[in-house]
Task: inverse folding
């Protein structure tokens, strides 16, 4: 869990530190790459770690991932220019993407499927906690001891985890000799890079019709086609196509992409801006106001894990979670500028409950659908596509929000108001709340009308997720008692191979 926290925290911790970082390192034009480099590298290596872990064993791979992550932290923490910082972030991502996947696969190696639900639930909480706490920590470090501590903080925790893993982690050994699919890795890297860059740059840094965006989109489509074609022809593919023959894998992965990927990250990405602009919250306060979502996620995922371990059943939770998220998105679309803050926090709590009902449930369903030899590969592929969904979905929501905001500001501000405001692309919460009351009210209303309808647009997508959850086949979790009515195979006897591995 410590390693998982570090790996997921570094996706968000630099967000509030970025203005100071790029100012000191004179790299405003390269700001986006500080985040993009980490996400891009982490996404690319997820399937690679998963597949190699299944083929070669996970312990050395895990230790190598921790070392890479710590090396990237040292490079980024001691960066003297933007090139060094971006390089450090990329190296961090090469380690961090593997840590997220391998942590979950190690749990699968050591814990019977039925009991695994109790262990996976806290891991799901870690993701949401990191998404909220990351910006808070980044802002606090920047204002107190300096932004470099966003990276130095990884060293003591990472070194402790490295020592424990090296000495105390005993995993089943793999006896396979595998060939590495270098062509597949190269094609997948190209495909992911093009997809992430189109999602990050399209509609923001470049117009969607810009030749660069169109070229990246075409190259991305071509790379994906070539990648999947190559996976059908090699002996040890990075993402074996046989995974997609399992309806559990295909449906669970699709649900994760469109419900969790879009739902959670759309709220986390754009609600802080809304809270700052409309309610006048500070950056730190807007982060704290997202904590009800973490509380809801934790309050749902932990008892769900216990219940799945007891009954072995899971399908009801993605159905309920999708419906809760859909209803909550509809509620969020009704908020006004005068909606009580406590009511908005209640909606965020419900969003967390919906995500908690299904986040790690889907991962567990995927793991349960495959033999032990493919658990890491299936887990990695599921997380890989969820990350792609989160990146593309967040970019799509951002494009719609930005377009609506531009229209709203144009409609609500007169030419005289625009002269008072100045460049609308440079609006900050502090600037908005220092403007004359009529202008301030117009801008606040523009933000409210720009964002809240976007949540309503997402409701049909979440309902599709609920329909898919109904169609999700349920294979009862293995590892129940021998006398249980589901007829599951009992776990190993004390002192057996699994106990020794543990």
Result:
């Amino acid at each position: 869990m410590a390693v998982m926290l570090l790996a997921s925290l570094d996706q968000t911790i630099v967000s509030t530190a970025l203005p100071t970082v790029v100012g000191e390192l004179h790299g405003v034009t390269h700001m986006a790459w500080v985040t993009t480099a980490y996400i891009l590298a982490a996404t690319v290596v997820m399937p690679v770690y998963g597949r190699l872990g299944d083929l070669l064993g996970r312990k050395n791979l895990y230790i190598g991932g921790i070392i890479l992550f710590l090396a990237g932290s040292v490079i980024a923490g001691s960066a003297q220019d933007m090139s060094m910082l971006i390089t450090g972030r990329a190296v961090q991502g090469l380690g961090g993407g593997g840590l997220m996947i391998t942590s979950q696969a190690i749990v699968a190696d050591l814990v019977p499927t039925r009991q695994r639900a109790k262990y996976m639930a806290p891991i799901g909480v870690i993701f949401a906690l990191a998404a909220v706490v990351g910006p808070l920590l980044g802002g606090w470090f920047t204002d107190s001891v300096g932004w470099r501590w966003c990276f130095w903080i990884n060293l003591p925790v990472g070194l402790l985890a490295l020592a424990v893993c090296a000495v105390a982690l005993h995993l089943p050994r793999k006896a396979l000799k595998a060939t590495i699919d270098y062509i597949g890795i190269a094609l997948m890297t190209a495909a992911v890079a093009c997809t992430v860059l189109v999602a990050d740059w399209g509609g923001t840094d470049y117009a969607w019709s810009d030749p660069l965006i169109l070229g990246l989109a075409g190259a991305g489509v071509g790379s994906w086609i070539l990648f999947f074609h190559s996976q059908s022809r090699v002996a040890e593919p990075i993402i074996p196509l046989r995974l997609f023959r399992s309806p559990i894998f295909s449906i669970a992965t699709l649900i994760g992409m469109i419900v969790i990927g879009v739902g959670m990250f759309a709220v986390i990405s754009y609600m802080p801006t809304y809270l700052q602009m409309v309610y006048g919250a500070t950056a730190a306060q807007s982060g704290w106001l997202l904590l009800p979502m973490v509380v809801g996620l934790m309050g749902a995922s932990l008892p769900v894990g216990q219940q799945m371990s007891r009954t072995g059943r899971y399908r009801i939770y993605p159905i309920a979670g999708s419906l809760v998220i859909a209803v909550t998105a509809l509620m969020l679309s009704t908020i006004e500028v005068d909606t009580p803050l406590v009511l908005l926090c209640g909606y965020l709590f419900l969003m967390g409950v919906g995500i908690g009902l299904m986040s790690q449930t889907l991962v567990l369903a995927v793991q349960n659908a495959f033999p032990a030899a493919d658990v890491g590969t299936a887990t990695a592929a599921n997380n890989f596509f969820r990350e792609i969904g989160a990146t593309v979905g967040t970019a799509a929501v951002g494009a719609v929000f930005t377009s609506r905001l531009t229209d709203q500001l144009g409609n609500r501000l007169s030419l005289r108001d625009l002269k008072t405001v100045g460049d609308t692309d440079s609006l900050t919460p502090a600037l908005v709340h220092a403007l004359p009351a009529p202008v301030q009210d117009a801008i606040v209303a523009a933000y409210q009308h720009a964002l809240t309808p976007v949540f309503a647009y997402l409701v049909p997508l979440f309902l599709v997720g609920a329909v898919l959850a109904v169609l999700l086949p349920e294979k009862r979790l293995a590892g129940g008692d021998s006398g249980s009515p589901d007829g599951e195979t009992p776990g190993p006897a004390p002192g057996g191979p699994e106990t020794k591995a543990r």
User: Anything to note?
Assistant: Confidence is low (pLDDT under 50) at residues 481-502. The two ends are 17 Å apart (CA to CA). Residues 375-412 form the longest helix (38 residues). Residues 117 and 305 are 5 Å apart (CA to CA).
